[in-house]
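Exam prep: given the inputs below (a chain plus fe (ii) ion), describe the expected output before reading on.
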Amino acid sequence: MAADLSPAGAAGSGGSGASTGGAGSGGTTASGGLGGSGRGAGHAAGTGGVSAGGASGAGGEGPDLGGRIAPEIGLKVAFFGDQSLGASPRAVLDLIHQEQADLLVILGDFDYEDDPEAWLGQLEGGLGEDFPWLAVGGNHDLAKWSKYQPMIERKLAQIPGIECVGVAGHQQSCSYRGVHFVLSRVGTSGSGHEDFIRDELAASNHVWKICGWHKNQRGMQLGSKGDEVGWRAYQECQNAGAIITTGHEHSYGRTLTMSNIGDASAEHGAFGDWDSVEVGAGKTFVVVAGMGGVWIRDYHPDLHADDLWWATMYTIDWEMRQGAGQSADHGSRDAGALFIEFGADGDPLKAKATFKLAVPWGRVIDEFEITAE
Ligand SMILES: [Fe+2]
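Solution:
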């Protein structure tokens, strides 16, 4: 749950008057848009992020953010893909409600039944009609995309304070309460995604940036999925220090910090601790959160036993925590979500993340800290 916004306390005393879009205020900027020079202090003023002036103000007590936009302290964002309809996906929505998340990001493959109305009904039934969420399409959403896409667009129009450019659910860049999300159907539909990701992240002035898409590269998931995204999308996010969130494979996996994504022979540059990862120029980590409620899948040791870049795994027949793997006999409809709390402990450069199950209820299977440069 987000604490009250306190820009001055979070990141310096100067210029806090510019931040008018505090928690829940619904403020929006007149200018809109995230492109090019439109970013910066004016942008921050509308979204609850700490303004550039505030972040770099002299005499502040917080860390020097170099004029960048800080997150709203305590902002909690939930992530999952691969949802479906029924008891397990409903339990995940209940968990998100109980955890008092401030935003949900849905990483594709919505209901698996080409039933947009049922999907939206389940979502709004679980979270309420006013709960803010973003969604990006997956392969199972293609047949009825012409129905899903306007639903995503309508939702965005209702979220107070969010600012987005691009095409909703397809190739989009949004700022919400001081965190920047770049969502893409790379590997699923359309082209030009890598350039879009690069350009939006290059223009970003946010401390915290998130990339989100549905599909994977084989080495960036734990099952049998192949190379469907290409490395460049991952590399653009790594270059910018943006957290990479994905779905598609129906299990949970989270990597160590990586600095060389795409080079498996160098273990993708994986380094650091199991429970502490870093983001910054040239380094990030990858999450597969494909347990939004649909049946989960098994681990493929034939394909992944030599993958030394994982920190945590949860599949139907195998789990790994803190580097120690063991056989498992999990339920086929086990389900859960990743939660990231930005500005943890009042520090705009720190986040705390958990992957928590809703089925079985409440079990935490991953817990780690993220430090931003
Ligand atoms: Fe998928």
